[in-house]
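Reviewer comment 2.1 asked that we show a complete input and output for one of the modelled complexes. We chose the iron/sulfur cluster case, as it is the one discussed in the main text.
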Amino acid sequence: MLIVSACLAGINCKYNGGSSTNLKVRELVSRGEAIPVCPEQLGGCPTPRPAAEIFNSTGADVLDGTGKIKRINGEDAAPEFIKGAEEVLNIARLAGCSKAILKSKSPSCGCGNIYDGTFSGKLVPGNGVTAELLLRNGIEVLTENDI
Ligand code: SF4
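Response of the prediction step:
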């Protein structure tokens, strides 16, 4: 069983109320081989919600208490992002998932590269908060670009 980002499965859970549908991920869910989760919703964020990016740091820094996640309106989003990551880990453990396919570039789900915190589309090396927490707990993380 796999964990997948819900927005890749066509669920309208993105900050703007839309999805990032990937047909391969959708197929995995429809065959019962993957569980769709949205860490930001699981952390208590509403949908739609103001965009957020990790600022001048990475998901690893956020988990370690030194990083910042800012919404475009200036609010601190770190508590919700950390809670959501913990809930995704709970679900992965409950269902015995050893692998996840998560949405690239996202401050929660991104793996390898994430937006840099300037809301300009620029990327920096690093993982989103959920991707980082799953990796720290032995779960392999891929993005939709790897499948
Ligand atoms: S938190 Fe992850 S699953 Fe939820 S909308 Fe963002 S990228 Fe998609």
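Residues 108 and 128 are 4 Å apart (CA to CA). We note this here for comparison with the apo prediction described in Section 3.2.
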